[in-house]
Amino acid sequence: MNRKSLLGLLLVLAAGVGLFLWLRSRSPTPDQTAGAAESPRPARRSPGSPDPAGVPAMLRDPSWKIRLAGANTLRSLTAMPLARRAELLVQALDREATAPDSSPPVAGSYVPLSTFLCLQYLGLLEDLGPDAAEVVRAAPAPASPAGREWRSLALAATGGADAASRLRELVIRARDPGVRMSAAHFLGDLGDRDAIPVLRTALSDSAAVRPRGDRPGLSADAFHPVREQAAGALRALGVRVERRGDTFTAR
Fold it and tell me: For residues 178 and 119, is the Cβ–Cβ distance under 8 A?
């Protein structure tokens, strides 16, 4: 797995403008950078000299922008052991899933803010690779059902094939479309051919979304993210999938 695979998971848009908005939103804006610099926390430090001691506080900050900046700091924080970075990301994921942020969605995103942040954390765990899988397995069990769902996704993101059976349940039964689409995506990544029947069922998933624009009238067309990810996973598993409009058919 690599970062490009999660980019496809985070946004599958029918219009290029939506992708541009999302790519812009996942990088700190000047306002976000300024907000972090004004914080009394270690976010003041320049990107070239991150302070490992300050990252845990950033990941617990009430501001989602600072939490996201702290998480992104871990990507290049090689002075911190990989296991510790993975541990911090798992903790951040648990907190976000258990106590969702009620702020408005990010411009260009089609998911609630907390789902957006959880997907960011998954991507960072994916970047850490298989060495992070044992950290995910060893972490204390999340207190909430949502936390347990995202924990299964985290294990899959780090290459844990033992997450596949749980993902097969989530792709059909999870209430959150963000969890369902992520489960479908990672089943394809894991090469789980036992998932083909549930992925076929997911081709009819009812979730329809429209990316949020940052200006009135600027938004991409609505689409079905779970169907899109299920179709992509089936193709990765060698199943031919045909599409007509919003209808997907596995052959």
Answer: yes
Whole-prediction pTM: 0.79
- The CATH number that applies at residue 39 is 1.25.10
Question: Under a CB-based contact definition with an 8 Å cutoff, are residues 203 and 195 in contact?
Answer: no
3: exposed, middle or buried (Cβ count in 10 Å: 0-12, 13-18, 19+): exposed
DSSP output for 194-235: GGHHHHHHHTT----B-PPPSSTT--PPPB-HHHHHHHHHHH
Per-residue model confidence as pLDDT tens digits over 44-89:
444 455 678 999 999 999 999 999 999 999 988 988 999 999 999 9
C-alpha radius of gyration, the chain, whole number: 18
Q: Taking phi first (over 0 means left), then psi (-120 to 50 degrees means alpha), and beta for anything else, what does residue 9 get?
A: alpha
The number of domains in the chain is 1
- Determine the structural domain holding residue 89 and report its residue range: 3-250
pLDDT in tens, 173-188: 999 999 999 999 999 9
